[in-house]
């Protein structure tokens, strides 16, 4: 089996990334050829660490930009792109490379769980305005634990522990990526600051015959959540989804769908407000429609 280089984007407190690096340095199996940490102009720089190639960006560009910078230093055929807040087992690298071997070249993600054991839904369908509008409808939130809701928002509900299955795309907590095809399609589109960059990349890879695979036989733990402000993160999310729709088609339909969903939310919230619930239906409507306006400020 071919060797692999780990690429870890870093921003913020380096403690979790350092812990991940230590876990990588003690991996069994001998397949890990190197570790690259891409410091995305972090206010707390990642320290120089023995056995780690640290590259420092001059400007904070987000996940895709940081990965692109790190990938420039990769000399192996495979790169393992890892969020810095992952906990991995002693044979994780070998296990994932073995699971991915029959599918190569392919983008492959393991099964991802939170520290409490709850799974993250990693496999997904290519997004549509209907997926995003369904997720936007707050009255449907009560059904979040159902497969019908998951499929309605674009999650591939087949992707559970123990299952290995091709999917449209996998989310980017941990991705094994073939380096040659990655470079051939231009890497991550750096117009995305955060969110949607993984699906955009995998859609371009799909066009050159590289599939995406969910490998549920391998598991990794993801702290997740991030430290940035939830409102700012939602602005980034909507901005990225609109950019994706503008690039791949359906921008007008997406805006119309989200605006219609906001009006539905307003009607439900107005009824809740009349019933004495602590909700401001007008303020909520204005906030949701505000997400659809371009030019939101970046920053972490």
Describe, in plain words, how this protein is organized in 3D:
This protein is of the alpha/beta class and 300 residues long. The protein has a five-stranded mixed beta sheet. Helix 4 packs parallel to helix 9, helix 8 runs antiparallel to helix 9 and helix 9 packs antiparallel against helix 10. The longest helix has 24 residues. It is globular, with a radius of gyration of 20 Å. The relative contact order is 0.14.
Attribute tags:
five-stranded mixed beta sheet, 10 helices, globular, 20% strand, alpha/beta
Number of separate strands: 12
- The DSSP helix count reads 10
Order of secondary-structure elements: EHEEHEEHEEEHHEEEHHEHHH
Which structural class do the helices and strands define?
A: alpha/beta
Low-confidence stretches: 296-300
Assembly state here? single chain
Morphology call: globular
Radius of gyration: 20 Å
N- to C-terminal separation?
Answer: 38 Å
Taking the sheet with the most strands, its summary is: 5 strands, mixed
pLDDT average, as an integer? 94
The proportion of residues forming helix, as a percent range, comes to 25-40%
Q: How is the largest sheet built, in terms of strand order?
A: 3-2-1-4-11
Strand content: 15-25%
Tell me the layout of helices and strands.
Blueprint: E1 4-10, H1 15-25, E2 32-39, E3 53-56, H2 63-71, E4 78-82, E5 86-87, H3 92-100, E6 107-113, E7 119-120, E8 123-124, H4 129-136, H5 147-152, E9 164-167, E10 169-170, E11 174-178, H6 179-184, H7 197-207, E12 212-222, H8 230-248, H9 251-274, H10 281-290
Parallel strand pairs: 1-2, 1-4, 2-3, 6-12
Antiparallel strand pairs: 4-11, 5-12, 6-7, 8-10, 9-12
Helix pairs in contact: 4-9, 8-9, 9-10
């Amino acid at each position: 089996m071919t060797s692999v280089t780990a690429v870890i984007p870093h921003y913020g407190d380096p403690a979790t990334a350092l812990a991940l690096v230590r876990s990588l340095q003690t991996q069994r199996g001998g397949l890990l050829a190197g570790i690259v940490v891409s410091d995305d102009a972090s206010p707390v720089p990642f320290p120089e660490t023995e056995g780690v190639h640290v590259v420092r960006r001059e400007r904070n560009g987000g996940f895709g930009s940081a990965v692109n910078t790190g990938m420039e230093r990769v000399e192996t055929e495979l790169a393992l792109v890892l969020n810095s807040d992952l906990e991995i087992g002693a044979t994780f690298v070998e296990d994932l490379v073995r699971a991915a071997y029959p599918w190569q070249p392919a983008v492959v993600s393991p099964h991802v769980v939170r520290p409490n054991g709850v799974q993250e839904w990693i496999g997904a369908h290519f997004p549509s305005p209907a997926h995003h509008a369904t997720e936007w409808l707050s009255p449907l939130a009560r059904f979040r634990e159902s497969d019908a809701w998951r499929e309605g928002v674009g999650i591939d509900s087949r992707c559970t522990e123990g299952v290995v299955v091709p999917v449209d795309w996998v989310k980017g907590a941990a991705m094994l990526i073939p380096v040659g095809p990655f470079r051939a399609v231009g890497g991550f589109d750096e117009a995305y600051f955060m969110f949607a960059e993984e699906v955009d990349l995998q859609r371009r890879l799909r066009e050159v015959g590289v599939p995406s695979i969910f490998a549920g036989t391998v598991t990794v733990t993801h702290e997740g959540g991030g430290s940035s402000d939830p409102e700012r993160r939602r602005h980034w999310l909507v901005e990225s989804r609109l950019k994706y729709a503008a690039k791949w088609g359906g921008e007008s339909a997406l805006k119309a769908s989200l605006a219609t969903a906001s009006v539905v939310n307003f009607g439900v919230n107005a009824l809740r407000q009349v019933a004495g619930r602590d909700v401001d239906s007008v303020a909520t409507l204005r906030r949701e429609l505000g997400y659809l306006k371009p030019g939101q400020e970046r920053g972490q």
